User: What shape does this take?
Amino acid sequence: MTLQWYPGHMHKAQKEMREVLPKVDLVIEVLDARIPFSSENPLIAGLRGEKPVVKVLTKSDLADSDNIALWQAYLDEQKQTKTLAVSTQEPAKIHTLPELCRKLAPEKTRGLKKLKAMILGIPNVGKSTLINTLAGRAVAKTGNEPAVTKRQQTIEIDEHFVLLDTPGILWPKQEVRNCSYRLAFTGAIKDTALDYVDVAFFGADYLRKVYPQAIMQRYDLTELPDSELEVLEAIAAKRGCLGAGGRADLNKVSQLFVNDFRSGNLGPISLETPAMVAAEVIEAKELAERKAEQKEKDKAARRKRRRKNS
Assistant: This one.
């Protein structure tokens, strides 16, 4: 599945980001702790240049804690980068973010100057909730669907720290295998832009292989099904998601399964590891190279045919 969901306001947001970034001291990038790579916008690294960045891993209560530690170790090795794993269950930890920003950009906090940070993130990673917790008031609109924030706004957290909020932006095309599925499974993409059954098949296949006990415990299964289809059929039988003839209603059970994952009913689950995505990036690069080579071969063949026919 290749993601092609890019609402018009996101184009405008990207343009505004380019204009404002030179005026801020550092960047806060909000990532979903379950998918730190897939929820990272590759445009941001190029846009921020040498500015320090704090990568905030939200929804950490929904992710595998061992995997969060792997990602933090991996990301903290990057230049001018610090990480902070948070959840709405631990507001005190969220309130440590301003001090972490000051430590990352100490030269910007001398004297009376306010530290200005641009906060970025793809849709539905919890950016607005994070802002509201920091501000102690409802200053950013929140919702359970992506693309809630539509325009930039400046938010004063305290007398020394200011946030510039931006709309969540996705990139126009994602080539790395399974990134689009992970985004869809976690809810970063509007449900109207995806096929629930397709996404549920991806999730059932992954969980069956990596978190089999989560499926068995949640749906009271005594045996692990042999395929993703059989996983969904078994859940349908347990939860009464049946249609004509007692067959599984795939649309109904897929929605139930996807929503169970998103709400954390299946327990803390991570959908990617640093090693996994490193292999996928190499695979994507090799595939792109093969496509480019084939394109050149096709061009050469067409030129040869034109010369032959002329």
Remarks:
- Confidence is low (pLDDT under 50) at residues 2-6, 144-150.
- DSSP finds twelve helices and six strands in the chain.
- The chain has three domains: 8-165, 195-262, 279-310.
- Strands lie at 26-32, 53-58, 81-85, 115-121, 153-158, 161-165.
